[in-house]
Design brief:
By secondary structure, the chain is mostly helical. The longest helix is centred in the last third of the chain and has 44 residues. Bound molecules: zinc ion. The site of zinc ion has 7 residues, from helix 5.
Length: 204
């Protein structure tokens, strides 16, 4: 029997991408997030910080091997605060805009909680311990927006079919959002990038 266990890493990573590129639309110090048209796709997409957001959005499920701790510590608001603190320290060291990096990284992690909250979950107890360690209740929306993937017997035919369905549904919902954010971001950052290029190569 298939038991759905919330969204797949692909769905979570797409949500993290959406946060990274969505944050780039917020006015402020963001010229450092741009790259000229001639740069590689990786640089134009926002380099390692964008990749970090995608990884951070999927990372809370690294608690899966820890059995009864799954969907507790790493799926709580306390973990979001911890990610914010670590991102803030890292940004200060790298001399990046601290608030922007904190919002991106903590926001990416927080999307994991949101996506899981919106997902189907047939395990018991259902949902996530959002308020761990202060409150042991489990939270789930019940709307089953994402049908959920299966984590057991990964190479069995029923599990593979279920996971392909789950991934297809996540991509159908999240990829259009990511594409729109990318297109708007390209437009929004284009002016900043050309300003940067001009200041890098001042007219003689
Ligand atoms: Zn999760």
């Amino acid at each position: 029997m298939i038991r759905a266990f919330m969204a797949s890493p692909i769905g979570h990573a797409l949500a993290g991408l959406a946060v990274a590129w969505g944050a780039d639309l917020v006015p402020g110090t963001r010229a450092w997030r741009t790259a000229p048209q001639s740069a590689s796709w990786y640089e134009r997409a926002g380099n390692g910080l964008t990749l970090a957001c995608a990884v951070l959005a999927a990372a809370p499920d690294l608690d899966l091997p820890f059995g009864r701790f799954h969907r507790t510590v790493t799926h709580s608001l306390v973990s979001v605060a911890a990610v914010a603190a670590i991102a803030g320290l890292a940004a200060a060291r790298a001399r990046w805009p601290v608030a922007r990096v904190v919002i991106m990284c903590a926001g990416a992690w927080a999307t994991h909680l949101l996506v899981d909250w919106l997902s189907a979950d047939r395990s018991v107890p259902r949902g996530i311990q959002l308020l761990w360690p202060f409150d042991g209740r489990w939270f789930i929306s019940g709307c089953d927006l994402f049908i959920g993937s299966e984590r057991r017997d990964l190479f069995g035919a029923p599990t593979m079919t279920r996971n392909l369905e789950a991934i297809a549904q996540e991509v159908a919902i999240l990829l259009p959002i990511v594409i729109v954010l990318w297109l708007v971001r390209v437009k929004a950052l284009a002016g900043l990038s050309s300003k940067l290029t001009r200041s890098d190569h001042p007219a003689k």
